[in-house]
Recover the amino acids of this structure.
């Protein structure tokens, strides 16, 4: 038996609890990511006899399914029902691959889907040859500016919106070609989505912000980082300061994927990721890729 339901804020506590139980390091498995990209990805709940799934659509208009329960609880017939047509399971962590024997399933991955995982301590210190350029930019920034910060809240989210709007204007792209709408909704529904974030001011003017949330007990995911390019080195400062704030509780930072963007790949690679966390695609042999 299958039921389908659209994603809504009312599902936050249920989904958040489910994600915490799954205890994954993959950035997709957070309520904020599912909710904020519900329209872009056309997310829907699928409730089957053996558990809960989220059905979505990628940029290539391919349909995929996110399992929200351990695959061992479902049999091959249920997988066939869930993946009928051209659907595939995604994103699947490497730890789950033994549940999908290769004589029955096709297993693949795209490097552009991989999450960038960093040691929080490295981001908080910028020590070592890997960080020479970032360390220099940070020192130059701090020599010129005396930044102040505040937790994002209902009293200052409009300041963050002004930063986001400036960032969007400078991108020279239509808002539907960036994550402007998703980030804007994150700011407007900040407390309802149980997000964490910091807004930075320079000479009392909003200059940048970072938004994220915990993935599990030792990994924190950064969803959005936006700043005014007026201030050279501000991104290095925000990442470094955020890592310092999070270091007492989280060993790792997840900065999500690069989506095949060469500039984003170069930037994220320059911060010395500890690993690229692969996200696998699983389809049933004979049922499409």
């Amino acid at each position: 038996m299958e039921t389908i339901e659209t994603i809504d804020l009312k599902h936050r506590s249920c989904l958040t609890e489910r994600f915490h139980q799954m205890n994954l390091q993959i950035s997709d498995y957070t309520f904020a990511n599912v909710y904020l990209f519900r329209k872009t990805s056309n997310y829907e709940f699928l409730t089957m006899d053996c558990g809960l799934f989220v059905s979505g659509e990628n940029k290539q208009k391919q349909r995929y399914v996110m399992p929200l329960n351990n695959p061992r609880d479902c049999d091959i017939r249920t997988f066939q029902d869930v993946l009928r047509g051209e659907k595939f399971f995604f994103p699947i962590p490497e730890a789950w691959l033994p549940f999908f024997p290769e004589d029955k399933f096709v297993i693949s991955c795209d490097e552009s889907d991989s999450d960038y995982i960093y040691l929080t301590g490295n981001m908080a210190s910028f020590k070592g040859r890997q960080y020479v350029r970032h360390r220099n930019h940070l020192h130059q920034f701090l020599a010129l500016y005396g930044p102040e910060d505040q937790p994002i809240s209902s009293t200052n989210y409009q300041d963050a919106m002004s930063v986001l709007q400036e960032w969007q204007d400078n991108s020279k792209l239509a808002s539907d070609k960036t994550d402007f709408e998703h980030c804007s909704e994150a700011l407007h529904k900040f407390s309802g989505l149980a997000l964490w974030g910091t807004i930075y001011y320079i000479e009392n003017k909003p200059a940048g912000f970072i938004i994220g949330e915990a993935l599990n007990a030792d990994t924190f995911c950064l969803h959005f980082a936006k700043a005014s390019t007026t201030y050279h080195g501000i991104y290095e400062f925000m990442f470094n300061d955020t890592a310092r704030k999070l270091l007492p509780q989280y060993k790792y930072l997840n900065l999500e994927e690069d989506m095949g963007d060469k500039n984003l790949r170069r930037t994220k690679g320059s911060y010395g990721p500890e690993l690229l966390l692969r996200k696998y695609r699983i389809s049933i042999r004979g049922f499409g890729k």
